[in-house]
Amino acid sequence: MSASVSILVKSGLPASSFRIGQVTGGGPRGAWSTTDWVPIIVRSSVIIGTLPEACGVAAWLPPHAVSDAVLDVAFAEDEPPIAVNLVHPRPVEWVSLMKPISSALYQKNLTSEPLQLVPFDQWVTRLEKYAADASEATIRRVPAIKLLDFFRALAQQDTMIRQSGRPDAEAVGFTDLMTDTAQR
What we know:
Elements (H helix, E strand, L loop, with lengths): L2 H9 L5 E4 L16 H12 L1 E4 L3 E2 L4 H12 L8 E4 L5 E2 H14 L8 E4 H12 L4 H6 L6 H17 L15 H4 L1
Parallel strand pairs: 1-4, 2-6
Antiparallel strand pairs: 3-5
């Protein structure tokens, strides 16, 4: 039990703690904020020439699913659970998200060919080359430079997942949130 959940239990207040996984872009077209890490990967990859491939799955949720779940708990007739984990109940492989992105970039003439997927650490190595003595113009074209330390951490997590042999782990080391109770 996490510290925050423990505090809620001890307080005796009717409350729920929501642990929310990665929230994707919203409707109607699924657009994400361009300053979020996934759109930054995509934009930077156009210049870098590759997309990162991570071992594992993504259990991302659209914002409407998060708001629906919060409303379901808030207006439930039964006492709500003290802890609610919100992730997609059917995660998909990371690569199944990146391949269509690669194809879409090509189809929209943003790349001259579909971008190759390379292991996350190799993508970060390419990013580091752009980051070395980067000008303001380069940083605008490759915004992932601003998140270089974050992407290095994701690459480290990806390497550990690859070595563990757990392809069902949450990609890039994000916390696996259990949903067994909610799925019953």
